[in-house]
Amino acid sequence: MNAIIGLCHFCEAHGPRPLFCTFTTDEEQHTTESSKGPVECSGCTSLGPDTVLVTKDDNGIMYCSRESVPNDDVTAFLRQAALRSITCEVSWDKYSGIVYFSETQGHVLSHMFHMKDTRARGLKRLFSIVVLMKDKMFLLNLTPVLSEHMKKISNELQQLAETVYNNEQSICSQRALRLKTGRHEFGQSRPLMQLTNETDIFKRLHTHFTWMLKTGALIYSETLYTSRELLNKLQPETTRRSIFEDTCLVDSNEKLSIRNLANVLAKDVFIKVLYCLLTGVKIVISLEQNNSTAILEALKSLLPKGNIPIEISKSNSQLNVCVLEECQNIFHCNWNNLPFKNPTLMNKILNAMNNDKFCDAVLVQHLKSLQLEWLGIAKTIKLSILASGQNADAVKNLKKILGVSQHDEILVNYWMVAFCE
């Protein structure tokens, strides 16, 4: 688990301070270098600057306990957590910790508790256990398990401190002495080893904190999924015959790129052919030279897999079709029904082709993403129509949310029939 667990205390002379911390690392340097920062007093001392406790598991992960973290930013975050966990972020529920968030530094689960001390102000000392983590949801999911064990650790420390407290009170009652004299020199806080009369107290804490880090990693594992991988894991049937299949024919190694095709056909001819291609108007390629196949494959790359209305034919007598012809090395298109406003997808394709920052390889991937985007829009609208009806208000509102305007209707309607089975 990628987190830092720390024990903090309130020093009579220096205020809230981190005392001891445990974290995971894979760098050997963290197990040998000295802790940074000067120790304020004996009460703020735990292992000492040159002592490091290390546990290594079978996977090679090291659990390292030190007086401070070998990172200045994290050390500042730990000090801030110590201050907040002891002074203001206190839970009224004795059996759970409290979680508070910081988007800039990180998120904290803290548990504050008291330990009896005959030499402390009010005959008790304030301590806290904090868990520092960057992943908010991961921390929230682990809060019940970690809070339970933090309470267990605090009870163990309180029992050890209470035994020492009772022995000292039996010898000389500090409460009676203070009431009689009316004064007390508090001085420096006592070290935790002296407070609990346990020389191996930090080894025990290292064991507890290591268990928390290991348990957190076992209960919840962090895995990065792409959308397709996540759907395959949760509902494999939803990815069959969907946009997550290999629905695009884009090939970065195609012989005739889209930009080259536009240059060959000329701009006005290419725009007409592109509109017909995206909206389902049948295209007939009638060329003199034997380059029909290259043009056909280049045009197919602009659409998802499906029944694409393109054919190669020497006859151009068909009606209501876009006929692409070549005469003296000049291409012509006899289709002149371009609308006043082109579909959004068509404009995006043309803008991408005119973008000099897109090399051909990047342009190919960008066109593929545009295909997937509008194929997803078409599938979503089709499912909504099947559920609510063609003219339902829900369908109209969905189209607005998806950014489908009136000039996109012809494209979406064609894609729903041709590519959304």
TrEMBL record:
<feature type="domain" description="UDENN FLCN/SMCR8-type">
    <location>
        <begin position="42"/>
        <end position="421"/>
    </location>
</feature>
<dbReference type="Pfam" id="PF11704">
    <property type="entry name" value="Folliculin"/>
</dbReference>
<dbReference type="GO" id="GO:0000122">
    <property type="term" value="P:negative regulation of transcription by RNA polymerase II"/>
</dbReference>
<protein>
    <recommendedName>
        <fullName>UDENN FLCN/SMCR8-type domain-containing protein</fullName>
    </recommendedName>
</protein>
<dbReference type="InterPro" id="IPR037520">
    <property type="entry name" value="Folliculin/SMCR8_longin"/>
</dbReference>
<dbReference type="GO" id="GO:1904263">
    <property type="term" value="P:positive regulation of TORC1 signaling"/>
</dbReference>
<dbReference type="InterPro" id="IPR037521">
    <property type="entry name" value="FLCN/SMCR8_DENN"/>
</dbReference>
<dbReference type="GO" id="GO:0005096">
    <property type="term" value="F:GTPase activator activity"/>
</dbReference>
<dbReference type="InterPro" id="IPR021713">
    <property type="entry name" value="Folliculin"/>
</dbReference>
<dbReference type="GO" id="GO:0005829">
    <property type="term" value="C:cytosol"/>
</dbReference>
<dbReference type="InterPro" id="IPR044886">
    <property type="entry name" value="FLCN_DENN_C_sf"/>
</dbReference>
